[in-house]
Predict the 3D structure of the following.
Amino acid sequence: MKKIIYIIVMILLIGILLISSYLIFKNNQEDKEQEEIYDEIVQIAQDNQEDEEKQEENIDMQSLYKINNDIIGWLKIEDTQINYPVMQTKDRPNYYLRKDFYKNYSVWGTPYLAENCDIKNSENLIIYGHHIKNNKMFGELENYKQKDYYEKHKKIKFYTFEEKAEYEIISVFKTVVYSSKGFRYYDYYNLKDEKEFNTFINKCKELSFYDTKQEIKIGDKFLTLSTCEYSQTNGRLVVVARKIS
């Protein structure tokens, strides 16, 4: 009897090992495929520039638009892996949560602008992206919990069809969603009202991991990057930057 139980247990353990190995292999393959897709997108975005230096500073939005007209911008942080297209589908909220640039299913998804934001008129542009391991997608934002990292990566570039804008980070904080205890930062996309503006800025500063000593004034415009944060249930890591050019 003991021998039979031993054999059954061994079969179960081997089965679990095989399934685990398959899942790890599958995940690694998916990650590799996604990396190749976004490497290809970067190549398309920069391919028409003959000068290598200009390739880094210019994004061919028109070529990308011909492939997928949901694109509204390009997000880049120097010396990081954040170098991605930004999409928006106002009539299909969160569509790119699990879609790649070619609209195929993707665990990585693609960074996208909140449906309530207007790329031309909103004072605060809120961009969502998945927290993927190995600093992929918005996984890189986890490093901003450390002030030393922030000091070396203060600037965010956001290219649109209208302009090449640069933002400087003013606050990095974590909060929770789906809870009355959390800060509903995603509601602050229009900051024309002075009271609403001050509420948003004061809360960002209050929650921030460290003081960035950035001066803010009424009329400033912002870029907010949001991703998952795993130290708490339904946690979010948020990086807020002020437009400087």
User: Anything to note?
Assistant: The chain is about 30% helix and 25% strand. Residues 2-46 form the longest helix (45 residues). Residues 52-243 form a domain with the Sortase; Chain: A; fold (CATH 2.40.260.10). The first strand starts at residue 71 and ends at 76.
